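Subgroup meeting minutes
Present: P.N., E.W., G.H.
Scribe: E.W.

1. P.N. recapped why we're keeping a running log of single-chain structure predictions: easier to compare across weeks, and new members can see raw inputs and outputs side by side.
2. G.H. added today's entry (456 aa).
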Amino acid sequence: MKRELTPRQIVAELDRFVIGQKDAKRAVAIALRNRYRRQKLSADLRDEVTPKNILMIGPTGVGKTEIARRLAKLVGAPFVKVEATKFTEVGYVGRDVESMVRDLVEDSVRLVKEEKKEGVKEQAEVAATERILDALQGKAKVEPTASNPFEALFGGQGQKTEEPTNTQTSDRAQLRRLLDLGELEERLIEVNLEEKQTVDLFQGQGMEGLSNLQDMLGQIVPKKRKKRKLPVREARPLIVAEEAESLLDMNEVHDEAVRRSEQMGIIFVDEIDKIATKSQDHAGVSREGVQRDILPIVEGSTVVTKYGPVKTDHVLFIAAGAFHMAKPSDLIPELQGRFPIRVELSSLTEEDFVKILTEPSQALIKQYTALLESEEISVEFTHPAIEEIARIATHVNRETDDIGARRLYTIMERVLEDLSFEAADMPQTHVQITPAYVKEKVGSIAEDRDLSQFIL
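Output recorded in log:
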């Protein structure tokens, strides 16, 4: 684990980003701490201790997803969020349930690569500096030339580089000094960079397995490179990233990524209530089929990925749903048993909305004031104005559909719409947001139930 936090410390960290929901925070904190405890056990007992999966029950917008996402970020664990409704029963067109494990491993590979790149950053920067100096001297990186495709595949011989003369060496030293002083940042250079593949040929639904074929072809066929003219300041991070990648042992990265996925991975399955059904019609049978496909993944099985087989026995699963139209007991009994910890999240109150607007480290009020400050418009929200926004959000949620904290985004956009539109053309100024200002912008809409259904 990235950090050995106590449950109390985990809850305190989550409090910085998510308001309320103490029961849910305590449940995930205990689950995370149990992982740390498990690592201290003997090998034979460690394999027997499996995570106690969590089922979060509560309306939309109350913090279910945010709690899981912040938890994963807190400890640097691989994390993936999936919607249960995206999956289809085996044999139907759509994503198969094993793709959630493949997505988890992909996220784990990304995390491990970022960490390993930090470890070789200094070496990569030194190599990047040499490539930039080569480009400044007009010497592009020499690529192997081959007389036929088979030589390209199996390592053709490159051209020999000439030994530098004394004059070239002194010129290089002068360029290095200017580069270190930052005087060549705007100089255009021609660099030979690896062309990134932006489109996955086999990205369609139900075609995840074929992506392995694409990766195999990518390893056989030489990677395409493209010459680009860029200022030194733009070329440097691209070259550093490329050099860092070349310094990594990818086999080691993949092995570590698989290990982390198995031992630290968190899979958040949202909208699980949408596949809970007691009906026996075709749609109901299909949804039950998805549940039966998810079951072996949750209870522990081996999924084959392009990085190797991954066991899901110790992956923590957090499922969530509003359960407005269904009940947790509508899930098949086997799946219910795999989520022994059930936590109910409460709807947000007016006081919660006030805290959401002001207390988190990246609170909504702070975000909007920072955005407008970039246009030299200083915006100040008075506390009564914040309370008025919270009151309107609570009122609209109660009168229409309860979408939780997401209602605040809609109301804040309406309150600041005119100011955001005019800010670019306004002189430097200070604007105070008062309750009267808030009522003027959204008060009449909020009170009209029919209108608020469409606008707020």
